[in-house]
Design a protein that fits this description.
Order of helices and strands: EEHHEEHEEEEEHEHEH
Strand order of the largest sheet: 5-2-1-6-7
Shape: elongated
Number of domains: 2
Distance between the termini: 40 Å
Structural class: alpha/beta
Radius of gyration: 21 Å
Number of helices: 6
Number of strands: 11
Length: 229
């Protein structure tokens, strides 16, 4: 069963235009996609123009087979399956359509807000959940860990989320490596930013392990000198 949600745009007259999304409506999925990829009024309007969605993803894309979506592309009931009566709804700010949604998201013209409806708290400006990050392009992540398969993906997660532990592989395919992420964290530590408390290495590359361990040791020295995690 999907985790249902509604996504909306607050209009100048304070009404809201919103659409339904069926799958993965929890903030762990929707929040980073909305805040990273639909963060302007024009982008939000383009998203809402699709009407109700089966799947929210990073790109609006083009019409495609409903049951075989390209990676990273939204799947819309109207555009991709030809359904009718799935256009965005216009409604009062506190009269959201009842789609059985567990979460609601609204763009106010500058930023995204989210809430759980039915009296379970007001609108929230941020979403943060402490996570453990597994960086590896081949090995599966342990249960409960977030999986990043490239240094760019890992850095994006570290930038926007509350990561408390990281386990590094070195070789991430082609010329990419976990060492890039460690160096990025080392620079952040030197600049006074918080870094994850637990930094482990699971790489089988002995030279790569040595290089990453040197950088991790440097991070730990910096953190110890300033006396905070």
């Amino acid at each position: 069963m999907g985790t249902r949600a509604r996504i909306g745009l607050r209009n100048p007259d304070n009404t809201v235009t919103s659409i339904y999304t069926h799958w993965d409506g929890y903030p762990e999925h929707h929040w980073p996609i909305l805040t990273q990829h639909y963060n302007t009024i024009d982008r939000v309007r383009a998203l809402l123009a699709l009407g109700d969605l089966s799947i929210l993803d990073e790109n609006i894309g083009e019409k495609h087979d409903f049951d075989s979506a390209p990676e990273g592309v939204c799947t819309a009931y109207g555009r991709d399956r030809g359904e009718k009566n799935v256009d965005a709804c216009l409604h009062a700010p506190e009269e959201w359509p009842d789609s059985g949604q567990e979460f609601e998201y609204v763009f106010d013209g500058e930023r995204w807000l989210w809430r759980q409806p039915n009296g379970r708290g007001g609108w929230k400006k941020t979403y943060s959940e402490s996570i453990s990050l597994w960086i590896d392009d081949e090995r599966p992540a342990p249960h409960g860990w977030r999986h990043a398969r490239s240094s760019a993906e890992a850095i994006a997660i570290l930038t926007r989320e509350d990561v408390i532990a990281v386990s590094f592989d070195h070789d991430l395919g082609e010329d990419d490596s976990g060492y890039r992420v460690v160096c990025w964290l080392e620079e952040r530590a030197h600049n006074g930013h918080r870094v994850p408390t637990v930094l482990d290495i699971h790489s089988a590359n002995p030279i790569g392990r040595f290089r990453m361990q040197q950088a991790i040791d440097s991070i730990r020295r910096v953190v110890a000198q300033r006396g905070s995690p």
